Amino acid sequence: MLSKNTVNKVILAILELIRRKIKGELGDKQFSIQVDSTQDIGSTDQAAVCIRYVFKSEVKERLFAVLEVKNSSGKGMYELLKKCFDDHSINFKNIVGESFDGAANMQGDFNILHAYIKKENENSIYILCYAHILNLCICDTCDNKDAIKLFGLLNRLSTFFSDSYKRMNVWKEQQEQLGTGQNKLRKLQKFGETRWWSREKALKWVFSGANCLYPVVLSALNFVTTSSKFDPKSSSEASSLIENLCNFKTICTAHVFLKIFITVGSTSTYLLTNILDLLAAWEMVKTTIKEIDKINFDDVMSESEKFCSHMNTKLTTVKLPEDIIIESEFKQTRIRRTKRIFDEICSDESPINPKQKFKVEVFLCIIDQLKTSLSERFINNTSLIVDMQYLLPKHFTDLK
Q1: Is 187 exposed, middle or buried (0-12, 13-18, 19+ CB in 10 A)?
Q2: CB neighbours of 35 closer than 8 A, spacing ≥ 6?
Q3: What is d(CA 364, CA 27) in angstroms, rounded to the nearest whole number?
Q4: Which of 112-116, 263-267, 394-398 reaches the highest mean pLDDT?
Q5: How much is the pTM?
Q6: Are 253 and 146 in contact (CB under 8 A)?
Q7: How far apart are CA 366 and CA 142, in angstroms?
Q8: Residue 288's pLDDT band (boundaries 50, 70, 90)?
């Protein structure tokens, strides 16, 4: 009775009953769809398909199918959805709205899912998932070379300790010795590619606040480099991680992102609420862009220098070698001179001062990229959002 075949048959019967009920409520009415995909534990890409429709004056939102994605292109997703609806006798031309993430195969004008649906119903409207779009805006800024190094370093740290029980035991012991206690044991955070909050958590745990894990990390890494229990490869990796953590440029980049995460935090939280006012959300996005523009470079530098000073003081209580010192200023690097053709009047010049170089190549690039992404990704359907507000009962009194 409890064999896997019997259980699967029961599940399929339940699925068929649910779909019949949905089809009975939907009839031949117009509806909208929400589609998002992710990999499961077996690395199979699975797309969840939800449909929204009105039944007896109530908005219904139902999970209709979970489909295996073998072709993630716009055309492939279109054919997958069309086959799903055709198999269940649902008119694909009745789709009047779609909501996807901001992936390249979902939005745009050519060869993407929205374009194929638009051919079926030219009045169909594409709405972005704005909480996900904010994630993508933050992730856009992480394409900067120094941002890649910073978050790559955090991932390396997490993997370094979690991949070995011996190194994880060192991590636990160092936390206990430095006063965090076993019941407050914290692991270093791994993060996903499109979930900025996981990057925020990973960054804050290492670099933010007086009780951050920065001293614990350095102490644990130093133990690995000096202990005979670990092989040369582990010791070499630990030494490399220490060098990168003590680099002033790494610390400054971390504090740039800490400022950004504080600025966008309230907007992100609001976009995830179930009582979302679209017009208020749009205003919050515009306010966020203005607040990002106010992030001051000198404030970032000041906080970075304070962090270095505080951590150097704190490390005096930890038995670390004297050569482990947290840098509090940028290293002066040599500038490669490129050969100039004899008839050239001038040559391209990059900032010689390392602080100014960081401001131009890292700070301003990250801030400008974030402002541009927010402006470009949130600009779609602005007029529609404004008009839709008047369909909310609380705005009925505003109509004249």
Answers
A1: middle
A2: 47, 48, 49, 50, 77, 81, 98, 99, 100, 106, 113
A3: 54
A4: 263-267
A5: 0.74
A6: yes
A7: 8
A8: confident
Q: Are 350 and 335 in contact (CB under 8 A)?
A: yes
In the prediction, which pLDDT does 384 show? 67
Range in 175-189, 283-297, 352-366 the model is least confident about: 175-189
Per-residue tokens: 105: 């195969």
Answer for the pair 245, 312: CB distance below 8 angstroms, yes or no. no
Q: Does residue 135 contact residue 195 with C-beta atoms inside 8 Å?
A: yes
End-to-end Cα distance, the chain: 66
User: Which residues face 37 on adjacent strands?
Assistant: 47
Characterize 67-94 residue by residue with b for buried, 16 or more Cβ atoms within 10 angstroms of its Cβ, and e for exposed: bebeeeebeebbebbeebbeeeebbbeb
Question: Which DSSP symbol is given to 114?
Answer: H
CA-wise closest residue to 106 among 116, 121, 92, 119? 116
- Name, in order, each residue with C-beta under 8 angstroms of 171's C-beta and a sequence gap of 6 or more: 161, 187, 216, 220
- Neighbouring C-beta atoms of residue 214, cutoff 10 Å: 22
